[in-house]
Design goal:
Blueprint (H helix, E strand, L loop, with lengths): L1 H21 L3 E8 L4 E8 L2 E10 L13 H17 L6 E10 L2 E9 L2
Parallel strand pairs: 3-4
Antiparallel strand pairs: 1-2, 2-3, 4-5
Length: 116
């Protein structure tokens, strides 16, 4: 089951990247990891740096995928992003935190899903 979930997650992240590219986002990095945590996708659009958490599910039987991005997960993503920014030389005007839900291969992009 764990291997299946990993494969499903990888497919969801790939589909999310393709979706963002089609929306004219530039993908900066995928699966960024540091000693604090991981960010699925880091992208740029219109000088805004976007940190994206991707959640994939086959159905919404047990709730929306975005509901899994609770306060604890949000805090970890924010701290990971802050660490990324300290070491980055990217030129950007602002940043935001998005969640992309992938449910049965349909994408729901939630911009500004949470704040730092």
């Amino acid at each position: 089951m764990k291997v299946f979930n990993k494969i499903k997650g990888n497919i969801g992240e790939f589909n999310a990247c393709q979706y963002l590219k089609n929306k004219k986002y530039k993908i900066i990095e995928t699966n960024y990891r540091n000693n604090i945590g991981e960010i699925d996708i880091i992208a740029m659009k219109d000088k805004c740096l976007v940190f994206v958490e991707v959640k994939s599910r086959q159905t919404c039987q047990f709730g929306r995928p975005s509901e899994a991005v609770d306060r604890r997960k949000q805090r970890k993503i924010v701290l990971t992003a802050e660490s990324f920014l300290k070491n980055s030389k990217l030129n950007y005007d602002g940043c935001r935190f998005d969640v992309i839900e992938v449910v049965d291969n349909e994408i729901n992009h939630i911009e500004n899903a949470f704040y730092s």
